[in-house]
Structures are given as structure tokens and as C-alpha cells.
Amino acid sequence: MHYLTSFITLIALAASSQFSVANERDFWLVDEFLEQHPEQQNISLTFAELVRLPATPLNTPPLKPVKIAVVYPANQISDYWRRSISSFESRLKELDIPYEIHPFLTQTPKNDSLREQAKEILTAVNSGADYLILTLYKKQHQSIIERLISNQKTKVILQNITSPIKAWDNQQPFMYVGFDHVKGSQLLADWYMDQDLENKDFGLMHYPKGYISKVRGDSFAQYTKSNSNYNLVSSYYTDSTRQNASDNANNMLIDNSNLGFIYASSTDIALGVSDAISEHKLQNKVLVNGWGGGSAELEALSQGKLDVTVMRMNDDNGVAMAEAIKLDLSGQTTQVPVIYSGDFVVVTKDSSPEKVLSLKKQAFRYSGINRQ
After folding, report:
1. CB of 319 within 8 A of CB of 366?
2. What CATH number has the domain bearing residue 218?
3. What is the rounded distance in angstroms from the CA atom of residue 347 to the CA atom of residue 353?
4. What SS3 class is residue 53?
């Protein structure tokens, strides 16, 4: 009861806080972390190869099902989260791991829904889960997750974040898993720079203020400034919905007549920007990217509504979580890397249907290439 009361108090404090995720000094990027912890390099490489290989069933399955709670912001156009659950469960079955999974699906985090999200986390904890999978968008979530890690009753997997929090030092969660946001953003920046556009001005559509806006938006702006003659002339923080992105992009296009491209930080934002570009009849004049390469983006690319995306080998992150649990159940927890970061491929509207199909088969090997 004491733990429950203190956790509710923590939720109230987190929900009332106005802090956003602090600057990049508060967390390590993947390469920085591996430099600080060289013993992790071989562990990470070996584990990455395990993810790519076919499943090898667990020798001695547990007598009781493993209890897993998942708190996902799944109500988005992007199919990343839904595919993650699908690939995760499929791999668990192949590994012969009995399990019970309890999903708690929420809207994309906003300040006004933070208390609700925190209560979802509390509900997941109280479900008696052996493993809790969730993500980190806001600074306020950090305090909640830190409490869970220190309690050690439930092993925490942080998904869609590959940047270990420095303040947690040697008491990190069981695993960070996802795709390196900074690397993906740099791949998109490199593609834009290779186009050598005549119009050097560009706009940037951020995710809501927080971790993702830092590692996808700010990192893109910084990298582009350091490595090109492109100029960031306008930026907006969105609420991550298609309509809001479209409204902001419409204002951006009215105020800036010579944009070469608009960088979008997520699928929903990209499609909203595309809507605005189409409304202004600026297709092929103002470029726009996707981020993630899910089904909606690949369809938009095939229709010429997007120009490029960085495509995650999506299902690998679900496979990685299942393989980490297998190692843990096998008494090989030390072989679970602190970070698993999956592979990216750049795909454009000019990529051949054959190439895209091949990438779909690889990226969606468990969740299905035709799933929406």
C-alpha cells in the first residue's frame, strides 16, 4: 500500500511539472554510450546477429506464463507500435515462451494527458507484470520510470529510445530498444544534401516538445547546419497529428515562398505536410520526407506524396525484446545489451517496386507486408 500511495504522489508531481526533456547532455547517444562502455560493443554485435537469425526455442520453458505489460501510444497513423506487438508475440511463440500480454494503448503524449498516461503505467505495474514495456517522451515520465527501475519488481524495457539517461548511471532499465533517431535523421539530412536543391531554405516540423523533438528535429537542424549550406528559416512544434501539421505547414508555405523542403519528424506530420504542399500545388517543388517507413508512408511514396523516408526494419525491435526475455529466462541476462538499435534503409519515391517489396519482406517479416 505504501508503494501504491507513493507512486500516486509521484504521478501527481509529474503531471504538474512543466519541464520538457532537457538537452542532449542529459543522455548518451548510441556511439557515446558504447565509447563509455566498451564491454557493451561485442554484446551488442552478438545480440544484433541473434535478432537477424531464425528463432531457437528455449530449452526449458518456464512453468508459469511470463506476464508482460505494454504501454503504447498506438493511436497513430504510423503502424510502428501495432507491428511491434505483432512481431514481439510471434517471436515469443517461436521461442516457446509461454506468456500473458496486457496492452495499454494511449494517445500520443501531450501535457494535458500526462496524468492519464502515468495512471496507465501504474495500472500496468499493479498487474503483476514481470516485464513492462513503455516509451519515454516527456521529462515527467523520467521520474516515474526511475522509480520503477529502482524498485526492481518489474523489469523495464524502454522502447523507441536508444539514448541511455545519464542520471541513471549504472542503474539503467533492463533494455533500451528501437531505432537510433539521430542516425535516422542524419540519413535523411544526407539525402537532402545530395539533392543540391536550388532553394536552400527549409522548414522543420517538430514532434511535441520532448525527447523525440530533440533527437529527430534538433539533431537534424544541427547536422544540416554543420554540413551544408541549407538554411532553416521556419519551424513549428506540432501536436503530432496530421491536421495540426497540415495547418502549420500551410502557414509556413504562406510565409516562405522559396522553401526547398520541409523536414517532417513523424508519419502523421509528414502526411499533414504533404496535404499542405498539395493544397498549394507545390508537389516536386517543395520536398517532404517521411520518418519510419511504415505502410502509410510507403503507400504515400508510391503515389508521389512523399519524396523520401528512412525505413526501419520494423519487426526487428519486437524480435529483440523477445530474444532479450529469452536470455533473461535462460540465466544469460549479462548477454542482453543495454541498447539494441535496429537497421535503417533510405527509400525514395523513385525506388523500384521490386526493391520496396524486398524491403517490406525484411522489415515486416512477422507482422505481414500488407498490414495497415
Report:
1. yes
2. 3.40.50.2300
3. 11
4. coil
Convert the pLDDT of each residue in 150-200 to its tens digit: 776 789 999 988 999 988 888 899 999 999 999 999 999 999 999 989 999
Counts for the chain of helices (H) and strands (E), in that order: 14, 12
Q: CA 146, CA 173: separation in Å to the nearest integer? A: 8
User: Is 287 among the domain residues?
Assistant: yes
Q: Which domain holds residue 244?
A: 182-291
The values of phi and psi at residue 317, to 5°, are -70, -35
Residues 52 and 81 in one domain: yes
Q: List the 155-159 sheet strands across, edge first.
A: 99-105, 66-72, 131-134, 155-159, 175-178, 339-341
What total of structural domains would you count in the chain? 2
Mark the ranges of the chain whose per-residue pLDDT is less than 50. 1-24, 109, 111-112
Looking at the fold, whether 219 and 233 belong to one and the same domain comes out as yes
CA 326, CA 332: separation in Å to the nearest integer? 8
CB count within 10 Å of CB 208 equals 21
Q: Are residues 92 and 106 in the same domain?
A: yes
First CA to last CA distance, the chain = 42
Residue 175 identity (one-letter amino acid): M
Question: Is residue 160 located within the same domain as residue 64?
Answer: yes
Considering the domain architecture, whether residues 191 and 283 belong to the same structural domain is answered as yes
Cell numbers found for residue 222? 544541427
Q: Is the dihedral of CA 294, 297, 301, 302 positive or negative?
A: positive
* Residue-level pLDDT at 141: 63
CA 82-105-79 angle, to 5 degrees, is 20
Q: How many Å apart are CA 48 and CA 264, to the nearest integer?
A: 29
Choose the final residue of a domain: 291, 306, 326.
291
How much of the chain is helix, strand and coil, in % rounded to 5?
50, 15, 35
- State whether 326 and 235 are in the same domain: no
Show the cell assigned to 327.
Answer: 536470455
pTM: 0.85
